[in-house]
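Fold it.
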Amino acid sequence: MYPDEFDYYNADGVDDALDLLDEHSEAGTTELLAGGHSLLPAMKTGLSSPDVLIDISDIETMQGISADGDGLSIGAMTRYSDLVDSEEVAEHAPALAAAAGQVGDVQVRNRGTIGGNLAHADPAADLPGAALASDATLVVHGPDGEREIPADEFFFGMYTTDVGPDELLTRIEIPSADGAHGAYAKKPSPSSGYAMVGVAALLETDGESVTAARIGANGVMDHGVRLSPVEDALMDGSLDDDTIEAAANRAGDDLDVDMMMSDLQASNEFRAQLLEVYTERALTAAIEDGSSSAAAD
């Protein structure tokens, strides 16, 4: 199908994008175009019919990865492939690197962006759980300047975030997890490759004990969620299989099964089972990542 007619603008900077948002705020529906992998198919099928399309994919100040001793700053228009190829992301944000490597296929990763993924907030997208596990802060710009939003407070619900209609997600800040071990495990949809359930894990260890843990999940609820009971069960525990299994079995303790996602591919009850299974797989993979790193040292 062909999309309905719309006005197209190519923003040449953050201020220009904000000016365009303001200029067309009363002109009907306005959408921002990043990588386009969610918006363009929706437009072709008639699920989305914006009157105005503002292309932000070429804004140079919203691209790239920079690292210092405190962590990473990632431009919102940075592509998945850049995250996967970045040694800095692998070192400082291993859970994010692992999740980015499982997004779609090569073509998708070469075009899709981290900012588009997070701002779109598809419940089945791969990066919300990783952003939560990585303790990310999402930085938005609007008429009143810059605003920082912790990942724990960013996702409101299906396709809904704390980004206002006159704001733009410009970068993602991630504190360094150098020395921590990260992983991402997901059950992909056989039809789309999106996550029926995806779990990102970031573990800090001291010898055979877990000293800190952050676990995030997507595909289960209508937005990305932290799995705090799993984190609590891991603290100061050993890295043996029994501890990992017991912690994973608590993945749904804070979640209402009746409120979990349910569709033709997986009922809410089945997702609850998958959540425990893939939490255990993510934890095991994170520990194996730590073992591999130790062996390489």
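Residues 291-297 have pLDDT under 50 and may be disordered.
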